[in-house]
Design a protein that fits this description.
Blueprint lengths: L2 H28 L18 E2 L6 E3 L2 E4 L2 E10 L2 E5 L4 E6 L6 E2 L4 E5 L2 H29 L5 H26 L2 E3 L4 E4 L8 E2 L4 E6 L4 E8 H4 L7 E6 L6 E8 L9 E8 L11 E7 L3 E7 L4 E3 L2 E7 L4 E13 L2 E6 L6 E3 L7
Helix pairs in contact: 2-3
């Protein structure tokens, strides 16, 4: 091996040794072995954030709360009429749709009445002949040219023809279905061209100004109710509660649910309140001790309900709570707070 080759090999070996040494120094440095270490301990930390100046707070106090039990029910109309037909035939026209407001005696639909019209035309012609014959016989009887029996027979034929015409006119009126009350149309089940059968349900009309809540009330609460009792009612479609008056308590007990049906007339219901709306009847129960807070103090994080509590050192922290009934801007806090806690009335969510 020549001298030049030996020198080149030594240089390569030194480069490798220097690289390994550099990596070793970097590892030792990264491990912190060459620096001063911080001893283990607890880093000081204050929970929450400082209470901003001017923040409105409320102090929670244990107090006597009137207990109220809400019982679910369904809104119906006290005056709901299912409209059917007394005659059969093909539907000619339907002039209303579900949701339309109608007036009493307004036409709703018509059924093909050609056959009854032909019968009525023939009966009216017969009536004209009978009337003419009756008048002629009456004149002849006055001139003593006809007997009493002939006059009686002519009069009888006239009244029979008149009764037949009246009967057919009434029958023809059944081919024109009219609104039985002032109200709103619902549950339309017929279309032009359909074959209507006697007794078939065609549609329904309900009175929107006479609405009630039908509630299956547990037997244990029935003794708190009586006819004429006025109670608050809440509806899904309304933010504010309504007043209702108990009008009927069904005496029969449902053996499956151990409830009795109670009907509560709604006072001044909204005109656009449809039957089937979900509602709740609020019944007073025994009072109990608990905590009330402003409803605005409770906020949600996902599915969790929380309030912001002010600590003695004037810092704001979040606390998980469980809420109960809400009424008049107040909410009952079932858990998560103690007597004397201060909470933020309007949570500071942006801090």
């Amino acid at each position: 091996m020549t001298m030049a080759t030996r020198i080149t090999a030594l240089l390569r070996l030194w480069k490798i040794l220097l690289g390994v040494l550099g990596i070793a120094v970097l590892i030792v440095w990264s491990s912190g072995a060459l620096r001063e270490k911080t001893p283990p301990g607890v880093v000081p930390h204050l929970a929450g954030f400082p209470l901003p100046d001017g923040t409105t707070t409320a102090t929670i106090r244990r107090e006597t709360i009137p207990s109220r039990i809400s019982v679910a029910g369904t809104v119906t109309s006290e005056e709901k009429i299912q409209v059917s037909t007394r005659v059969g035939g093909v539907v000619d026209s339907v002039v209303i749709s579900a949701g339309d407001s109608v007036a009493r005696d307004q036409a709703l639909l018509t059924i093909d009445d050609r056959e009854i019209r032909e019968q009525l035309t023939a009966a009216e012609a017969q009536l004209n002949r009978a009337e003419t014959e009756f008048n002629r016989t009456r004149q002849l009887f006055a001139a003593q040219a006809a007997t009493q029996q002939q006059l009686t027979d002519a009069e009888s034929s006239f009244h029979t023809a008149q009764a037949r015409v009246d009967q057919l006119r009434v029958a023809r009126s059944h081919y024109r279905i009219q609104a039985p009350i002032d109200g709103v149309v619902t549950d339309r089940r017929i279309e032009p061209g359909d074959l209507a059968q006697p007794g078939q349900l065609l549609l329904a009309v309900y009175n929107p100004s006479a609405m009630r809540l039908e509630v299956p009330v547990p037997v244990r609460l029935i003794e708190r109710l009586s006819i004429g009792t006025e109670l608050p009612v809440t509806l899904d479609r309304l933010e504010m509660p309504l007043a209702g008056v108990v009008t009927e308590i069904v005496r029969e007990v449902d053996t499956a649910s151990r409830t009795q049906l109670v009907r509560v007339r709604l006072i001044d219901p909204p005109t656009d309140l449809p039957p089937g709306t979900f509602g709740r009847l609020i019944i007073d129960a025994e009072a109990h001790e608990g905590f009330l807070a402003p409803e605005s103090a409770v906020f949600r994080v996902g599915q969790l309900e929380m309030v912001q509590v002010v600590t003695p050192d004037q810092r704001v922290i979040r606390r998980l709570v469980r809420t109960g009934p809400r009424e008049n801007g107040q909410v009952e806090l079932l858990s998560g707070v103690d007597d004397g806690d201060r909470i933020v009335v309007k949570p500071l969510l942006d801090i």
